[in-house]
Amino acid sequence: MNEKIIIGRGTKYPLNGILSLPDNCSSEVPAVVLVHGSGPADMDESIGANKPFRDIAEALSAKGIAVLRYDKRTKIYGKQMLKESSGDMTVESETIEDAILAAKLLKNDGRIDPDKVYILGHSLGGMLAPRIDAESGDFAGIIICAGSPRILSDILLSQNDDMLSQLPKFLQKIANRQIAGLKAKFDAISGMSKEEAKKTKVLGKTCA
After folding, report:
1. Which residue did the predictor score with more confidence, 135 or 190?
2. Backbone phi, then psi, for 76, in 5-degree steps?
3. Are 201 and 208 in contact (CB under 8 A)?
4. Taking the model in full, what pTM does it have?
5. Which one, out of 37, 113, 154, 196, has a CA that is 20 to 30 A from the CA of 105?
6. What are the b/e assignments for 39-67, b being 16+ CB within 10 Å?
7. How remote is the C-alpha of 118 from its chain's centroid?
8. pLDDT tier at 29 (50, 70, 90 boundaries)?
9. Would strands 201-202 and 66-70 be described as parallel, antiparallel, or unpaired?
10. Whether the Cβ atoms of residue 120 and residue 32 lie closer than 8 Å to each other
């Protein structure tokens, strides 16, 4: 059974979502909040014909577990956010705030056991899941799918190395000089203040 819901009703960025419930909700049931990976994504986290969040929701609700999924804020309000933030967009506004709102919505639903609300984060959502929990998500448990313990800059450089290894030798030499410059920028970030990072451009965007 699917119900249409709104995450953040009354806020600047309300989001459409779906609460998938078991057919029998005669007693309080456990629930899971699904948190997207990086980039704009709809509530099903659609990638071509694949809809992994919908599949997870259908599978878990059939097992007696409620599942809440919702459109990602940057999918619906991305241009508005960039205009309002002047490039100062963070994971707090992109992901964390809405995940916490989703958890609160579940805990205030009489059909949900408030002591059995879990978070399932995919990729970036998995990396952020412990932080979301720490920032008042107060989940019963954390499920990390394809999350990484490495920082994003390390992942990006590693991915670049994999791609470079497939290029002809003469192109590798050219690209290696560019990657070295990018790595130097990343290495400098850790020693910067927040204000300095905001003014530093990496890949055309500020570090903040």
Report:
1. 135
2. -95, -40
3. no
4. 0.82
5. 37
6. eebbbbbeeeeebebbebbeebbeeebbb
7. 15
8. very high
9. unpaired
10. yes
